[in-house]
Amino acid sequence: MIFDYYGFPRGCGSYREDSCDSYVQDDFEEKMTLLKRMYAEGIIDDKQFGRYKQMIYDNTISFEELMDIRRRGLNKTKQQEQDRGIDSADSDIDVKMQKLQQTRLKVLQVRNKLRQRIDELKAERDKMENMAESVIKISEEKTEEFISRKIEIEESIQRLVKQDNELEKQIEEIDEMIKELQTKELEYEAVKLKEEIENLK
Prior knowledge:
- The chain has 201 residues and is mainly alpha-helical.
- It is built from five helices and no strands.
- It is rod-shaped, with a radius of gyration of 39 Å.
């Protein structure tokens, strides 16, 4: 049994006093109501509304044909919403990917500066060591001063080396996150391709 959009069966019934034949032929109001609903739902535009309205007046389109147009329109709208959902997900992935790449670049820049500073401190440490050895026979006080300075520098180097190791771990974590996003991106591309193929059938 075919039901109209009100939920009532399309056929003879007690809610209409006229005959079954006249019901099928004289459903102008039902057609117009359905047409207005399709327009309100955004399924048809102004031009289509005018064309279908004239067809209803000319009785060249049936209620079932209008229902079929509405059904196809709803399916198309649903598909467009799904596509927008995928496009939105793609957009989110692109934004996250860009942020991760920017963060990775910043970490690398800080790490390069840090390593450069470590090399400078190592050179200064070696210099203090050489100076301590050069004055060891001349001045015990100077020797202790150079050795003390060397120890301070060594402590600074160790702190920076620890930070360098932490930055290296951060880069590894970012790289893993980038790989996960790349995997999601491929998954969405596969879904979009599948939908494109289905639409061609």
